[in-house]
Design a protein that fits this description.
homodimer, 7-stranded mixed barrel, two-stranded antiparallel sheet, about 35% strand
Chain lengths: ~200, ~200
Amino acid sequence: MNPKLPMSLPLPSRPGCEVRGRCEALFVEAEPHPETRAVSEIALDLQGIPGTRHYGFTRKAGPREPWYKRGMEMRSGRQITIVSREELAAIAALMAIESIAPEWIGANIVVSGIPHFTLLPPGSRIVFPEATIVVEAANAPCRITGKAIARHLTPDAEPGGIDLAFPASAKGLRGVVASVERAGTIRAGEAITVKVPPQILWQAD
Amino acid sequence: MNPKLPMSLPLPSRPGCEVRGRCEALFVEAEPHPETRAVSEIALDLQGIPGTRHYGFTRKAGPREPWYKRGMEMRSGRQITIVSREELAAIAALMAIESIAPEWIGANIVVSGIPHFTLLPPGSRIVFPEATIVVEAANAPCRITGKAIARHLTPDAEPGGIDLAFPASAKGLRGVVASVERAGTIRAGEAITVKVPPQILWQAD
């Protein structure tokens, strides 16, 4: 094989594949931030969920992007927040609490049946019957979300308990942020297909 | 280690890293499609290169997305086309031709110094002094581009030569399509840094 062809590089790779799962539940923004409330369907357009804080092709840079000036307008990549039912249960088990409600932590969509959901590579497509969503990145668990969980479970506790346990336990399990590729209405209970693109583990040499 | 933690999964992975390279040349749309012409700088905004065919947060679905209705408005992901000087030379060697000019094949940016450029994982950031571009996907080499190369090298030949050799030889070497994350002016000759995110080779089991 020609040594210039990337196929002959000694880089671990996998072909693309499809996995079937289910949209368990849907949520839209509620008070206080970052909480959401359950709805039976959401009409997605290409900017996300109309009328919500994360709607838009762009957003302002914040503490997640310390390399940009705070408030600078940037490409969003965070229109939609998706979590996995199985991974929420795994985080709760690691935190030794009974459960974490998706609406406590800002989730818009809960899926089930997708193994290692948070580890899906960016560019994976989550295909609903009428809409398609593109995975942008794993969502980094933060202390604000930890505080939101603590508010429900230990409202009288001093900081330093559940608020800190969440970011420590949820790494690699907190779901993904995503953008809408095809607009349309998504409904709780719908079957979904995740299209994982071909993957190559890039390295410099 | 807790078996529920993804870190204990037997999935090949790599930490994030940074690689330094150079922006060799810049190009904007020209006639006939898909050709481009050299410029010394481009003022990128969050929709891409103002005034060009690929400008916009959205685009119409085409033959690259046969699963969508032709003409459906969809998320773009193809604002900017980037190729690597070293990979263009590798394609030319495989095709047994002297060289491929980036302006024949629709490139907006030519970079150098980034190994396996086309294989960069989606979500890699290409950081210029004033702007940042996000890699969306490897660009699939197509016969339209092959025809554009043939028009320059073998204008009198029947179809079935260079036009077909290009998509066969350029797989994994044809560069990437990308979106603008941070607006700003990019200039030929600038140093760039590619920030490759942590990678995990996802699999279902």
